Structure formats: structure tokens, C-alpha cells
Task: structure prediction
Amino acid sequence: MHASLAAALIKIANPKPEESIFDPYCKDGVIVIEAALLGSKEIYAQDVVENNIRNAKINAKMAKVNIAWENPQKQVDYLITNIWVPALQPRSKEKIAQMLEENKEKVKKKVLMLTNWKNAEKSIGKEWNVEEKRTITRGLIRNYLFILRKNSS
Result:
């Protein structure tokens, strides 16, 4: 992900410096690094691929920012992530539903999820409300930003 797109996601979320951010699929760490550079103080990141974490830590060190490389054991204000859904892999679209299910008790305010899957709302459970869906086009690449809030129980 390009740093300017990651910075735009943070600006859309508009977190206060004391509000927490978590990226469960941080890849190379661009979203969380941009969050730190834009003033966020409490930032968590993880990834299922160990090499991604290694690269993200190197990038964060070069950017001179502090990130907690762990799944927070408490609620966070924002979950902001980029989930790429391979079209040809069976069951790959379940990744979105799984991520939302795993983090439904963790998010206090909103989820900002960038994905290449146009119809990702099909995997969003009933406990989430799609507040907004935006199409982001960069050249021939088209992505979709879903802004989610938990439904009131």
C-alpha cells in the first residue's frame, strides 16, 4: 500500500492522539507507521505472516516510530486494515468475516477496511453496520473502503 493512501485512511478515521489503533493484517506496516507519523500514540499491529512483521518492524525503525507488535488484549478505538482477497482462491472471502468476528468485541468505535473485493458487504455480519462504502481508484487498480460501526445490541 502506498503511504499516501495509508495516511488518507488515518485522516478519514480522524483519531485523537490518545485513541488506539489496531491493524490485524499490517503487512509492511504502512498504515500503523502513518498513524504514528500523524500523531497517534497507542498503536498495535500484527500479521499472520512472520516475515511481514519482520519487514514492518524494519520500516517502523527507519520511520522512527513506536508500534506495539501484538494483538491488544483490550479494546481499541479503531481497527484499520487492508485486506486483499484473492479471487481465485477458494474460501478467501471468508477472511473478512473471520477478521470481523475475531475482533467484534475489541473495537469501540469503527473499522476502516480497505479491500479489492467490491461486494465485501456480503461477508460482513449482522453485528456490523456499513456506514459508508467508497470506491478508490488508482490507475487500473480499484479498491473499496468500508467504514463499519457495531450495531447497537
Observations:
- The radius of gyration is 15 Å.
